[in-house]
Amino acid sequence: MPYLDEMKVFSGNSHTALAEDVCAYLEMPLGQVRVSKFSNDNTFVQYEENIRQQDIFIIQPFAYPVNDTIMELLIMIDAAKRASAGRITAVVPYYAYGRTDKKDQPRVPITARLLADLLTVAGANRVVTVDLHAGQIQGFFNIPVDELTALPLLTDYFRRKELDAPVVVAVDTGISKRARDMATNLGVPLAIIEKRRVDNNDHTEILNVIGDVRNRTAITFDDETDTAGSLTSAVRVCLENGAREVYSCSTHGVFTSPAMDRIGASDMREIVVTDTLPSAAASTTCGKVTVLSVASLLGEAMSRIHEGRSVGELFTDV
User: Fold this and answer.
1) I need a surface site. Which of 200, 214, 223, 289 has the fewest CB within 10 A?
2) Which tens digit of pLDDT belongs to each residue from 284-313?
3) What is the DSSP annotation of 188-227?
4) Rounded Cα gap, residues 262 and 228, in angstroms
C-alpha cells in the first residue's frame, strides 16, 4: 500500500444529504466532484481537486435508479484510480441485488457476486456497507469488506421507548439470527414469522407465528422494507395472534410503491428505519415513519479505516 496522504470524502448523486451529514460528523468538507450525464445518457465524472496518493472514500448507496447509481460509482472509482488516488474505499450503505445471492432457481444469475466483481475490477480497494441482505456476500469480494450494522441504533431507540412487554418478531426465518441479537440486547423474547414466497413478484404467503406474541407489544424486524407486503402481513398475523400493538423496524427503507399506502393503511403504530437510502427521508410524510441517521456510524468507521484502527470495536457489544 503506497503512502496515504489526507482523507477525502466524495459523493455521487445517489444520496448527497447522507454524505454531507457524514462530513459534518468528520468535521471536513465534502470533496468536489462533477458527476453528470451527456445528452446521450453517458455518465461523466471529473474530480475537481487533487486526489493523488490520498485516501478516498466515495459514498454511494445503490438507490433508485439502481443501475444508474451503480454505474456512477464504478465510473467514480475508475476516475479516482486514474487520478492516482492512494486508496479507494467504496462506501455503499445499501447494497442492491443482495437478494440475488445464490442460484435458487434454474438459469438465474448471482448478481450480488457480479456487483462484487465489478467494484473490484473498477479499482476499489475496500468496501464499507451496512447490514447486507445475506452475510455470505462478504465472501464474494477479494478485497476487504467492512459490514457495519444499524442494530445498536434500532435497539437503543426501542429501549428508550420503554414499551410494555415487548417481543421481537423476525419477519421470516432468514432474518431470525439478527432478530435474536436484537431480542437479546433488549432482554426480551423472540418470535418468528414462518412464510413461503410463492413467485418472483414480491408476493408471499404467511403461514404462522413461531413463538408467543399474545398480550405483548410486537416489534417486527427485517433488514429492509421494500413494497411492505411481507411487513404488513406480519403485522396482521401478530395482531391476529393476540399482540396488543405492533411496531416495526428495518435498516433499509427502500419503500417502493405501494409501500407507503400499505403502511398508512396498516394497524402498525410506527416503523423505524435508517437513512441509508434517500427514500427513507422522503417517506416521513406518511406519519408512521421514523428515520434514524447512520451518518455517525459511517463517519466513525471511515475515520477508523483511515487511521488504521479497529472497526470491529464499534460493535463489541452487538
Assistant:
1) 200
2) 778 899 999 999 999 999 999 999 999 999
3) --EEEEEEEE-SSSS-EEEEEEES--TTSEEEEEEEEESS
4) 7
Contact 95, 132 (CB under 8 A): yes
* Secondary structure percentages of the chain, helix, strand, coil, to 5: 35, 25, 35
β-sheet bridge partners, residue 250 = 222
Cβ-contact 304, 32 below 8 angstroms: no
**Local structure of residue 52 (DSSP, 8 states):** B
Could you give the CA distance from residue 259 to residue 277 in angstroms, rounded to a whole number? 15
Going by C-beta distance under 8 Å and a sequence separation of 6 or more, which residues neighbour residue 231? 171, 220, 222, 225, 248, 250, 262, 263, 266, 268, 271
Q: Which three cell numbers stand for residue 35?
A: 458527476
Residue 310: strand, helix, or coil: coil
Residue 130: what residue type?
V
Of 207, 286, 216, the C-alpha closest to 253 is 286
To which residue does cell 450503505 refer?
Answer: 93
Q: Is the pTM of this model over 0.70?
A: yes
Least reliable range by pLDDT among 87-101, 189-203, 289-303: 189-203
Q: Does residue 122 carry a pLDDT above 50?
A: yes
Quick check: is 8 catalytic? no
Cα–Cα distances in Å, from 53 out to 27, 90, 97? 21, 16, 32
The pLDDT score that the predictor gives to residue 2 is 46
Catalytic residue chosen out of the listed positions 102, 103, 161, 195: 195
